Amino acid sequence: MRLCRFDDDRLGLVEGEFLRDVTAVLADLPARTWSRPPGDPVMARLDELRPRIAALAGTAPRLSLADVALAAPVATPSKIIGAPVNFRDHLEEARFDRALHQDRAVHPIDEIGCFLKANSALAGPNSTVPLPPVGGRVDHEGEVAVVIGRPGRGIAVADAMAHVAGYTLALDMTVRGPQDRSLRKSCDGFAVIGPWLVTADALAEPAAIAFTLAVNGQPRQHGRLTHLIRSVPELIAMVSAFYTLHPGDVIMTGTPAGVGPVAPDDRITVVSELLGSLCVTVAAARERAA
Ligand code: MN
């Protein structure tokens, strides 16, 4: 099942170049309250919603994907988690290239674990990536994101896949500079996910996912999840040892070699046979410092 969020918080079931507007299944979502539970309420109920979406799809309004505005397929993650160096070819380029390592030691993921990107950086397909008014270049990092469905902490590797709601493409946009990682990777618009969620029931083996990132049509990165240093279940076990994973939490699984700077007006595209196509445009100019 390919599920998208579109227009004003509507839910769509993607079918080829079209979608079925199945927003009606969300009619009984609990009203938002001050102390609502952390996480994304749609991802929290996905197991229950999927059969209802399937039942409704045949009679739901059919729209052309070209006529709607897709949004990030997760609306309110409690956290966006990044895997710093999780492809061996990127580990090698990061150790070799001073623009990447910034005179800091580059440690494998087993030693340093993961990092967080601010939730306010969340953005969706066709967004414009701002260029913040800070020194240093801004790089693309094409990735695959895992979205959590079932909450948990201290999750064992053997149980991890039962906690996955699905998968989507991601851009972990990054300022290269001396700042802390959590700052450099958290600018507005720097956590792009989309175009839609491919639910885990439709994609049993995430290692099969491959993707290519291109800038203005020129291929820059190729990744295949079989080449992750820490696999999807291992990442889930690793981070859930530190913090509870809530429905809708996003884990960006790491970028392969080929990261590089983007320029104003660049068009960045991440394409995957299994996950679709995620495109963004870089802002026309660097923002001015206040
Ligand atoms: Mn990354």
Folded structure, characterized:
The structure is a single chain. A hairpin with a 2-residue loop joins β15 and β16 (218-224). The N and C termini lie far apart (45 Å). It is built from seven helices and 20 strands. The protein is 16% helix and 33% strand. It has 290 residues and is an alpha+beta fold. The mean pLDDT is 94. The strands form three sheets. Strands 1, 2, 3, 4, 5, 6, 7, 8, 11, 12, 14 and 17 form a twelve-stranded mixed sheet that branches. It has a five-stranded mixed sheet with strand order 9-20-19-15-16, with no helix packed on it. The longest helix is centred in the N-terminal third of the chain and has 12 residues, at 46-57. Bound molecules: manganese (II) ion. Manganese (II) ion is lined by residues 82, 141, 143, 172, 252, 254-255.
Shape: globular
Largest sheet: 12 strands, mixed
- Which molecules are bound in this entry? manganese (II) ion
Element order: H for helix, E for strand: EEEHHEEEHHHEEEEEEEHEEEHEEEE
**Separation, N- and C-terminal Cα atoms:** 45 Å
In percent terms, what proportion of residues is strand? 25-35%
- Counting DSSP E segments of at least 2 residues, the number of strands comes to 20
Mean pLDDT: 94
Tally of individual helices? 7
The structural class is alpha+beta
- Radius of gyration from the CA trace? 18 Å
What's the helical proportion of residues?
10-25%
**Sequence stretches where pLDDT stays below 50 over 5 or more residues:** none
